[in-house]
Design goal:
Elements (H helix, E strand, L loop, with lengths): L6 E5 L2 E6 L2 H21 L10 H11 L1 H10 L13 H13 L12 E2 L2
Antiparallel strand pairs: 1-2, 2-3
Helix pairs in contact: 1-2
Length: 116
């Protein structure tokens, strides 16, 4: 019998994600904290978003906080090919790479698993 240790991120009584390492779980929890703060901040923006879009945008911004920080500091958009960005931009780049190089195995970052 094998023993596995899982670190589960729980928010408002719901299991969000589980991780094999405490470091990954803490990083995800911190990202959720940031997304929550950003969502509250976006409520005060002059742009009226539909219900749920605030949370989606806040989560995307939190997931890409390093790129966002770089843009705010430099005032320039970083090279999207060399920067990992979650969402459609990264998906489109992955799809383009796969179609060009059929014989190459695409390297993907370790994926998180949803908590059961």
């Amino acid at each position: 019998m094998a023993v596995e240790i899982k670190y589960v991120v729980v928010r408002e009584g719901q299991e969000k994600m589980s991780f094999a390492s405490k470091k990954d779980a803490d990083a995800y929890d911190k990202m959720l904290d940031l997304a929550e703060v950003l969502s509250e901040w976006l409520v005060h923006s002059p742009v009226a978003l539909e219900e749920g879009q605030n949370d989606v945008l806040a989560m995307w911004m939190a997931e890409n906080k390093d790129v966002l920080s770089s843009v705010l500091k430099s005032g320039k958009l970083p090279d999207l090919e060399s920067t990992e960005i979650a969402g459609e931009v990264a998906d489109e780049a992955d799809n383009a790479e796969e179609s060009v190089a059929d014989d190459k195995v695409a390297e993907h970052p370790r994926k998180r698993t949803k908590a059961a």
